[in-house]
Fold this sequence. Notes:
With about 325 residues, this protein is an alpha/beta fold. Helix content is about 40%, strand content about 20%.
Amino acid sequence: MKKFLLTASAAALALAASAGYAAARDQIQIVGSSTVFPFTTAVAEKLGQSGQIKTPVVESTGTGGGMKLFCQGVGENTPDFTNASRAIKDSELETCKANGVTPVEIKIGFDGIVLANSKAGTVVDLTKEQIFKALAKNVAVDGKVVANPYKNWSDVDASLPATKIEVLGPPPTSGTRDAFVELVMDKACQEEVKTANEKGCGETREDGAFVEAGENDNLIVQKLEANVNAFGIFGFSFLDQNADKLQGHKVDGVEPTFEDIASGKYGVSRSLYIYAKKEHVGVIPGMQEFIAEYTSDAAWGPEGYLADKGLIPLPDAERATWAENAKALKGMGS
């Protein structure tokens, strides 16, 4: 056993030396999704307060931006974890592998994507088809594909309010944007648009009806409070944390609630992840402790402190499997 420990230590030191960051950094660095940011921050603060490790630094860069930083290589100047509001893409995984990075994937729970506005605004009940017609760059009108002509919600459907279409949404680097396109825009896309558009159905309007609001969800809240006719697109967890100011709306007749997202009844829901850089474990202090805390029942369980922040827990059996894989540092492709 002693010989094994010496060998393992030597290997870690060799890795650190080859990467050029032996003892150069003693604080975990985390990037990625703004949706997962509050959950990861809560875990980081919990560990920091316990004195087990230095409080990890968590930065909100968006899922796509986080993956780019995470997969760029191994070393002190690259992050140890990235948060993601969607699973890693094949192209991102290939980039990771090409740069010597082995991601350890950990699914942490579920989240819904909501369309919300100020509590002072109108309550609406929308379908995915109506959302597509309101936000798509091109739509089919009388069998022909044209630039989106709809100015007001009532132009989309007479049952909707006669107010201007104004929606603040996530940028292309956001996992929320990717999931929204997959779960709403692609699902509700008109056949004529599918046939005519080589770029698919995810293109959004550029005439001011859809505004990319960046990765700072707090700014979206401020803008929605200032404009009661505007809507925002973001994760349920953020709506839950701002329930005193914002209201979510039904999609296809189902409200975005904790219970309906957990059961799968709400049709605009997705899985959330964190990814650990296997090559940094044992070199950057505290990574195993961070993983252990994140995957503890006290954190991600049904009664855990992350549920209090809006994370919708995985079923018990699935949670146990992911916790086991995380503890074993089961790398993707390994």
